[in-house]
Design brief:
Keywords: NAD, Nucleotide-binding, Oxidoreductase
CATH topology of the largest domain: Rossmann fold
Order of helices and strands: HHEEEHEHEHHEHEEHEHEEHEHHHH
Number of helices: 14
CATH architecture of the largest domain: 3-Layer(aba) Sandwich
Protein name: Glutamate dehydrogenase
CATH class of the largest domain: Alpha Beta
Helix content: 40-55%
Domain Glutamate/phenylalanine/leucine/valine/L-tryptophan dehydrogenase C-terminal: 183-413
Radius of gyration: 20 Å
Largest sheet: 7 strands, mixed
GO molecular function: glutamate dehydrogenase (NAD+) activity; nucleotide binding
Bound molecules: nicotinamide-adenine-dinucleotide
Active site: 106
Distance between the termini: 45 Å
CATH superfamily of the largest domain: NAD(P)-binding Rossmann-like Domain
């Protein structure tokens, strides 16, 4: 997995295919491809032991034509500028495909959070936030959690930003704790959206989630709740994995007990009453639904030929390379693309931002209903275009998204 190409290669190839389908010229292609702004910052840390360490941080605003930049903050040792560019571009298309009034942005710090104490991560977060302060704000660029960050990280970002302005500004981040203005339903929204689009895809074939077998790669914020929601909807979750390995039980894993095991052990590995399994074995399992919910470049030219699932639902961003897409399409496997499948998180982030701006909070039921409505609407539009134009779901999602962004450019005109 580590030798795979940068995700920017996949992002550029996907955009180029959409541009070809739409018949746009090269000037517009470059305009759609190039980030509006990028900031590279140094993040010095005084460690708990008193040493000085230096980390690199980035914030990229890929496009802001439909609204403020929106996108997560990632802490990972693999973060580099091209990864952040790719993730920012995918945020642009994701917000457009579910039709919420945001552009796309992303941030990252090249740091392994597992190697640092909470106090060190707080100092890194506050210094990074201070360094990118010129770019962020509730009307300009709104952060959310991503890989390696969580609602506590968002609380630190919000506090740092608010302190610098002299008053509380909850709308500068989403995915924050409910006690300081977070939204009900946000913590599980990405996962709920993954299950909603799975249901839509199965319904199109006269089937449903209940009774299906599911394997989930990644047992973090997205994968763990997706596993729980699939199980609650009557599916059999037969395998899950994380960075340390995986576990398998063909009778269906007990997800509540698995959560308890992970809380104690820090990994799914070692879960009693299940067999060990590697990540590679899990990708190749004979299941109805495979959910890559960990990281990029998991389904590649090497691993895609091993996939036996009928439906791949991309909980992660960029798990599939263009070569793998071609292999799976040839093998009759339907892929629900990341920008659609995992958009539930940004949809409820949008709801959180709306609530913060209104200073009025919605009920959990209102959030759940509006999320499902928007995910189903977006899925239906993508599936309809795919049918009409003979496209894959990824191609159709990209075409809808790129067209919406290009329309915004065209209507606004080019300054000066
Ligand atoms: N958090 C969100 O709301 C959200 C929204 C949309 C998309 N995503 C995407 O979903 C993916 C996961 O994000 P998250 O927020 O759940 O992150 P997380 O840090 O909470 O969890 C990541 C999980 O992936 C596992 N993992 C890491 N490297 C792995 C490897 N090499 N092999 C197998 N498993 C590995 C980790 O052990 C962990 O279980 C990312 O691609 C992220 O961009 C997240």
């Amino acid at each position: 997995m580590t030798s795979a190409p940068s995700p920017i290669v996949s992002a550029y190839a996907q955009l180029a295919a959409a541009v070809r389908h739409l018949g746009y010229d090269e000037g517009l292609h470059q305009h759609l491809r190039t980030p509006r702004r990028e900031l590279h910052v140094a993040v010095p840390l005084r460690t708990d032991a008193g040493d000085l360490k230096l980390f690199h941080g980035y914030r990229v605003q890929h496009n802001v034509s439909r609204g403020p930049g929106k996108g997560g903050l990632r802490f990972s040792r693999d973060v580099d500028i091209d990864e952040v560019r790719a993730l920012a571009m995918w945020m642009t298309w994701k917000c457009a495909v579910v039709d919420i009034p945001y552009g796309g942005a992303k941030g990252g710090v090249t740091i392994d959070p597992a190697e640092h104490s909470a106090a060190e991560l707080e100092r890194v977060t506050r210094r990074y936030t201070t360094e990118i302060m010129p770019l962020i704000g509730p009307e300009t660029d709104i952060m959310a959690p991503d890989m390696g960050t969580d609602e506590q990280t968002m609380a630190w970002v919000m506090d740092t930003y608010s302190t610098s302005r002299g008053h509380t500004i909850p709308a500068v981040v989403t995915g924050k704790p409910i006690a300081i203005g977070g939204s009900l339903g946000r913590a599980v929204a990405t996962s709920a959206g993954v299950v909603h689009v799975t249901q839509s895809a199965l319904e199109a074939q006269g089937e449903k989630v209940a009774g299906k077998t599911v394997a989930v790669q990644g047992f973090g914020k997205v994968g763990s709740h997706a596993a729980a929601i699939y199980a609650a909807r009557g599916a059999r979750v037969v395998a899950v994995s994380d960075v340390h390995g995986g576990v398998r039980d063909d009778a269906g894993l007990d997800i509540d007990r698995l959560f308890a095991h992970v809380a104690a052990a820090g990994t799914v590995v070692g879960f009693a009453d299940a067999d060990p399994i590697t990540n590679a074995q899990m990708l190749a399992m004979d299941v109805d639904v495979l959910v890559p919910a960990a990281m990029e470049n998991v389904l590649t030219a090497e691993t895609a030929p091993t996939v036996r699932a009928r439906l791949v639902v991309e909980g992660a961003n960029g798990p599939t390379t263009p070569e793998a897409d071609a292999v799976m399409e040839a093998n009759g496997i339907t892929v629900i693309p990341d920008i659609l499948a995992n958009a539930g998180g940004v949809v409820v982030s949008y709801f959180e931002w709306v609530q913060a701006n209104q200073v009025y909070w919605w009920t959990a039921q209102e959030i759940d209903e509006r999320l499902e409505q928007r995910m189903v609407m977006a899925y239906d539009a993508v599936a309809e275009l795919a049918r009409r134009d003979g496209l894959s779901l990824r191609e159709a999602a990209n075409v809808i998204a790129v067209k919406r962004v290009a329309e915004a450019h065209s209507i606004r005109g080019l300054y000066p």
